[in-house]
Amino acid sequence: MESSLVKDNPLLLAINRQKTIYDGFITVQDQDFRLRIQLPADRQLKQARLHCSCKLKHLLRGYEHIVKQRLQQSADLVSFMLELKTVMEVGLKSRPECSSIPPPQYYSQLISEMETLGWDKLLSIDTEFQTLRLKVQDSAGRQHILIIKLKSKHPAEAPECSADLPLPLLITWTPQSTLAQIHHQFLLVLESLTEFWDVLDEIDRQTWILEPEKPSRSDTMRRIAIGNNVSIKVEVDPKHPKMLPECCLLGAELVVTPLRNKLNANMHLWNPDSSLLLNLQDVLEIEFPSPATHEKSAFSVECGICYSYRLEAELPDQVCNNPCCGQPFHQTCLYEWLRALPSSRQSFSVVFGECPYCSKPITVKMPTHQF
């Protein structure tokens, strides 16, 4: 019996002379599961105790009564081990997630790679030792977080990598690649985006940003305050951050039209060697309000209908064109208000009505989430 047991389970060995305690691994579908079997002095299976690793316990969850039954009925330890493997194979089929649990060599490989990379770069790792969060600093001193999700067959399988970037993170991977090489590739990506972040950092530092409220490193849009109820949305190209961005002026037509005309007339003056912020000011012939000269409260005007500034992520960007009024509204609020009035009319996606404050004509497009 002993020779058959060792032959079928070469990683499971007796650890005492009486051969009543066996410790090691049982291998099923090329995966190793740790266990210990303690037999009584008479070596009868009915009184045996089975100690499983967390990995094996998870696999056998729901099959405990079957395992106990096999212990009671099996003729010897060899027969029990064969039946246990059968139960485990059934468990692996019914629980696909168990088949992705890494083998022991995975952990030694991970430790070796982290020692090469440096443990100081590890922010956190999940309980399954498969999702790592690494901290990375670029040459400008900006802090970034790289998330790496390793596969159970690492390094044979390419990991999933993600970060807060304005472009997709593309990592080259081979079975010989390491975490240190991923880290190096990520640094190169960060360096390629340095100019993009420099441009946005200057805008964030020297203007009042209305949207997004808390910009992330992946955000390419900024809504910059120009004046009371007047702003400009700029969409910066991460690959060409100093080129003329996509611009959208927001506010009352009385104020926006002259600015739009200046933008169109002065577009040829755009200088790629100058900063994006200076170029915007030159072509619009304005100077943006800054934290040094204005309070943000001057631009955070409440909606004239719901009396709040932020409606979820929406800001009041619909403005009455009457120079004596100029009241701002959320698009959703104004649309719902006008749609409820008997005097309003709708043509396709545009509602025509009267300003709730001055009764002058006002229009609003149907919010996109209404479609």
TrEMBL record:
Keyword Nucleus on entry: yes
Entry superkingdom: Eukaryota
Localisation: Cytoplasm; Nucleus
CDD domains xrefs: DRWD-C_FANCL, DRWD-N_FANCL, ELF_FANCL, RING-CH-C4HC3_FANCL
Residue span(s) of domain RING-type: 303-359
GO terms assigned for molecular function: ubiquitin protein ligase activity; zinc ion binding
Enzyme Commission no: 2.3.2.27
SMART domains in UniProt: FANCL_C (SM01197)
Predominant localisation class: cytoplasm
Enzyme class, UniProt record, top EC level: transferase
GO biological process, one term: protein monoubiquitination
Pathway given in the UniProt record: Protein modification; protein ubiquitination
GO CC aspect terms: cytoplasm; Fanconi anaemia nuclear complex
Catalytic activity: S-ubiquitinyl-[E2 ubiquitin-conjugating enzyme]-L-cysteine + [acceptor protein]-L-lysine = [E2 ubiquitin-conjugating enzyme]-L-cysteine + N(6)-ubiquitinyl-[acceptor protein]-L-lysine
InterPro entries recorded: Fancl, FANCL_C, FANCL_d2, FANCL_d3, FANCL_d3_sf, FancL_WD-rpt_cont_dom, UBQ-conjugating_enzyme/RWD, Znf_RING
Keywords assigned by UniProt, alphabetized: Cytoplasm, DNA damage, DNA repair, Metal-binding, Nucleus, Transferase, Ubl conjugation, Ubl conjugation pathway, Zinc, Zinc-finger
SUPFAM superfamilies: RING/U-box
Keyword field contains Endoplasmic reticulum: no
Cross-referenced PROSITE patterns: ZF_RING_2
Identification of the protein by name: E3 ubiquitin-protein ligase FANCL
Organism: Echeneis naucrates
Lineage: Eukaryota, Metazoa, Chordata, Craniata, Vertebrata
Gene, per the UniProt record: fancl
